[in-house]
């Protein structure tokens, strides 16, 4: 995979022929991570490669603690989640193109410099997870985006990753942004105007504008699955509803998966004839990308499918299968719900 070969630009592998049989640690840093599914998924994926490595949660925003755990000899990599995605990047030795362009880090991995120093490289695998979740389900999706817009709902770090993924790999004519806070959108536009000068972003901030604009081909939701109460949240929900009800349909990805992958946005989209990808699928692909950087091999397909089956919706195992894209609309390919 491209991210693995690109990672060697920062140094050689820290692994040897016996590394998988020696305990190493990958660590998750953030707050409100007690219910994170990442430890479960990484445990499955490590086991699929016969690596006796551990993945542990560290609930902290303390950069000093992060640096100490990061540089321990048995730390092979880290996951970084909110609210640390910007601040913890400053403790790393280098940042990849994706991390620079997005302005946030969710993963670090280790490479070795010519002078044998261990280097800690920060990257963003959220965008890779979005790309891979879409392409594994709809490999011909790029042809459907030609000349059409895409849309991102939200204004946080996940929204930035979604914008980057859409613009870099799917070629939309422009990207609509729908969000409850205008200030967050202004910050996003300001950031990407510098990091990706040719990007085309449009803030959809009124019902009238939403009614006039053509439907996007891909929508990515990045906001919590909660009932809108504030004026900005209500407006955001109404704008989404307008786009979902338009005659042209496409693919909706909702990165939210708590408390259930069957979010209100997913169910609304399905009711209007859109195809959908749940946040649990994106999460699995994010974990796979992290594993590639840490273990330096792709997880085997049996391990990936085991990870999918570990994700549950309404008490049932997720069922995942692939299907080609139909003409015009993206083919429904989910059975049993995700």
Question: Roughly how many Å apart are the termini?
Answer: 26 Å
Instruction: Assign the structural class, choosing from mainly alpha, mainly beta, alpha/beta, alpha+beta, or little secondary structure.
Output: alpha/beta
Q: Count of helices?
A: 13
In CATH, what is the homologous superfamily of the largest domain? Leucine Dehydrogenase, chain A, domain 1
What is the correct CATH architecture of the largest domain?
3-Layer(aba) Sandwich
* CATH class identity of the largest domain: Alpha Beta
* CA-atom Rg in angstroms: 20 Å
Beta content: 15-25%
Number of separate structural domains: 2
Largest sheet: 6 strands, mixed
Provide the low-confidence segments as ranges. 313-338
Tally of DSSP β-strands: 16
- General form: globular
CATH topology of the largest domain: Rossmann fold
Order of helices and strands: HEHEHEEHEEHHEHEHEHEHEHEHHEEEE
3D architecture notes:
There is one protein chain. With 338 residues, this protein is α/β, with parallel strands linked by helices. It folds into two domains: 2-124 and 284-313, 3-Layer(aba) Sandwich (Rossmann fold), CATH 3.40.50.10860; 128-277, NAD(P)-binding Rossmann-like Domain (Rossmann fold, 3-Layer(aba) Sandwich). Helix content is 39%, strand content 18%. The protein is built from 13 helices and 16 strands. It has helices spanning 2-7, 38-48, 63-70, 97-102, 126-137, 141-145, 157-169, 182-195, 207-212, 231-245, 264-271, 279-295, 301-310; strands at residues 25-30, 54-59, 75-80, 94-95, 107-112, 118-123, 150-153, 175-178, 201-203, 218-221, 251-254, 275-277, 312-313, 316-317, 319-320, 334-335. Strands 2-1-3-5-6-4 form a six-stranded mixed beta sheet, with helices on both faces. The protein has a six-stranded parallel beta sheet with strand order 9-8-7-10-11-12, sandwiched between helices. A hairpin with a 2-residue loop joins strand 13 (312-313) and strand 14. Helix 5 crosses helix 7 and helix 5 (126-137) packs across helix 12. The longest helix has 17 residues, at 279-295. It is globular. The model is unreliable at 313-338 (pLDDT under 50).
């Amino acid at each position: 995979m491209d991210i693995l070969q690109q990672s060697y630009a920062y140094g050689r592998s820290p692994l040897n022929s016996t590394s998988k049989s020696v305990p190493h640690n990958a660590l998750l840093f953030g707050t409100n991570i007690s219910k994170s599914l990442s430890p479960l998924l990484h445990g499955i994926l490590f086991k699929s490669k016969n690596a006796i490595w551990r993945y542990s949660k560290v609930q902290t925003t303390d950069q000093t603690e992060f640096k100490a755990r990061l540089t321990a000899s048995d730390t092979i990599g880290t996951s970084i989640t909110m609210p640390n995605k910007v601040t913890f990047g400053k403790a790393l030795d280098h940042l990849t193109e994706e991390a620079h362009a997005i302005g946030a880090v969710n993963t670090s991995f280790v490479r070795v410099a010519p002078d044998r120093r261990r280097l800690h490289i920060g990257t963003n695998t959220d965008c890779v997870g979005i790309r891979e979740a879409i392409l594994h389900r709809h490999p011909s999706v790029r042809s459907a985006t030609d000349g059409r817009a895409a849309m991102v709902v939200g204004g946080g770090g996940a929204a930035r990753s979604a914008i980057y993924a859409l613009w870099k790999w799917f070629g939309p004519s422009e990207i609509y942004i729908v969000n409850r806070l205008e200030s967050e959108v202004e910050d996003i536009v300001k950031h990407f105007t510098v990091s990706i000068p040719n990007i085309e972003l449009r803030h959809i901030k009124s019902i009238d504008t939403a009614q006039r604009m053509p439907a996007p081909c891909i929508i990515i939701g990045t906001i919590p699955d909660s009932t809108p109460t504030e004026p900005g949240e209500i407006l955001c929900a109404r704008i989404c509803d307008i786009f979902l009800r338009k005659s042209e349909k496409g693919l909706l990805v909702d990165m939210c998966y708590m408390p259930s992958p069957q979010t209100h946005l997913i169910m609304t989209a399905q009711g209007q004839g859109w195809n959908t990808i749940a946040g649990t699928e994106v999460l699995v692909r994010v974990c796979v990308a992290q594993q590639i950087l840490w273990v330096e091999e792709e997880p085997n397909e049996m391990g990936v499918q085991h990870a999918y089956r570990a994700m549950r919706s309404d008490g049932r195992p997720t069922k995942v299968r692939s299907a080609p894209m139909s003409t015009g609309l993206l083919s429904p390919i989910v059975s049993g719900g995700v």
